[in-house]
Amino acid sequence: MLKKIGDYRYMLTRDYKPGMNTEGLIFADDELIEFMKADKTLEQIANAATLPNLVGRSLAMPDAHQGYGFCIGAVVAADAIEGFVSAGAVGYDINCGVRLLRSDISYQDISALLPKIADSLFQAVPSGTGSTVKPGMLKLSMQTLNEVLVNGASWGVEKGFGYQEDILHIEENGRIHGADPSNVSQHAKERGLLQLGTLGSGNHFLEVQYVAEIFDREAAETFGLRKGLVTVMIHTGSRGLGHQVCSDYLEIMQDSMRKYKISVVDRELAYMPISSPEGKRYLSAAAAAANFAFANRQLVTHQIRSVFSKFFPNEKLSVVYDIAHNMAKFEEHVYNGKNVRVLVHRKGATRSFPKGHPTIPDDYRLIGQPVLIPGSMGTSSYVLVGTESAMKETFGSSCHGAGRRMSRNKAKKQMSADHLMRILAERGIIARGASKSGLTEEMPDAYKDVSRVVEVVHQAGIARKVAQLKPLAVIKG
Fold it and tell me: Of 252, 273, 251, 250, which is closest to residue 261 (Cα–Cα)?
């Protein structure tokens, strides 16, 4: 059964579904839990709880909604030795993530230039489905692509596409170790050859914003955020390469379950033992895709800096932080008073580590890790900071965005692109998109209220609000 167990917390008890090995813990308020009841979200949270060798509960964030097998907004931790790895628990866009850049430019300084800046960004950063090479973009050889898959963002910096200090403000310093390009299929590599430095489509975006509100002055100052200053947010991932890695290994896992005598309540929950050859190959291929995503955001950053330098020659655009929300990573945690090593699957969930954690950049160590929560098109985004409560309850995890409440097809039927552009213009927001359908399927009403989602996270204590960012110009696929 589903029951409320405290402020912003709901529990799916083990009698909710036969075969559950643990409870489901959901962070939500009364309105958000109704969204989850309306689709298959609760069922998917319960299904995840039927998997073997879980450590802790099947977790869901307030932005959770139906996904492939696992809901989007899910967190599950598996024992690092006897546990499982599931491609579906990471998702198709491996290391889809967010990078935030800060500036010393005031909102007043940029307002008159915004139309030209938006046009320049739209031209400089390819977007849309199957984005390919434009003048000035890189066309990778297979050998060079393999180097990207191993070295991640560091590859971009070494080639002159950024600064060394960028690396310090990226999760895992922009490189997941253990990547093996030989475990990435030829087809996946071919899909990635022309896509480094591109946004893609769907909910991916590039957005010029400004700091509208400060909630935690000390943390904001530590992150270099001041009210009225311009920021730029990048939301993209591993593009077609990562999608193909997921597709390839979902098929491998589904085909191999009989070999390991594995049965699941939903075929989309297909998994392999971590210790199996298939499991190890997936983890190495997923690490390579994650590194591609880190490098991708690094090259997009370079293109944004090139555009801004034409309008503001002395502006550097520093990286506040870069963090993933579709990853499976080995981490050390404390569970039931014992130190445990687990493989934490975060699918549409963001890492939220507290102050003092050794993986946090030195200059943020006394404050905590930045948690970046993008809003839907035309709505606010948020910067939060990780907490001890998150470490205790969610393996250091928080939400990743607003969360869809309407399918893309339904959204496209609700409103025309021209009407949406007028609404955004009335709010003072400039929008550029690769296609009209790409704009309408991402309209604000297709998503939950991001401010409500963030407030649940803040009140539940699994991340703490630092700053609100409001959009000025958005580039969509």
Answer: 273
The rounded distance, in Å, linking the Cα atoms of 301 and 161 is 8
The per-residue pLDDT for range 212-224, each reduced to its tens digit, is 999 999 999 999 9
**Mode of pairing for the β-strands spanning 430-433 and 464-476:** parallel
The token pair at 56 is 């802790």
Q: Of these residues, 169, 204, 400, 458, which one is catalytic?
A: 400
The per-residue pLDDT for range 173-204, each reduced to its tens digit, is 999 999 999 999 999 999 999 999 999 988 89
Distance CA 398, CA 363 (A): 22
d(CA 188, CA 238): 11
Concerning whether 400 is annotated as a catalytic residue, the answer is yes
Could you please report the per-residue DSSP string of 62-83? EEEE--SSSPEEEEEEEETTT-
Domain boundaries, the chain: 2-476
Q: Does domain 2-476 have CATH number 3.90.1860.10?
A: yes
pLDDT, residue 418, reads 74
pLDDT band at 135 (very low <50, low <70, confident <90, very high): very low
Per-residue buried b or exposed e for 326-353, using 16+ beta carbons within 10 Å of the residue's own CB: bbbbebebeeeeeebebbbbbbbbbbbb
pTM: predicted TM-score of the whole model, two decimal places: 0.96
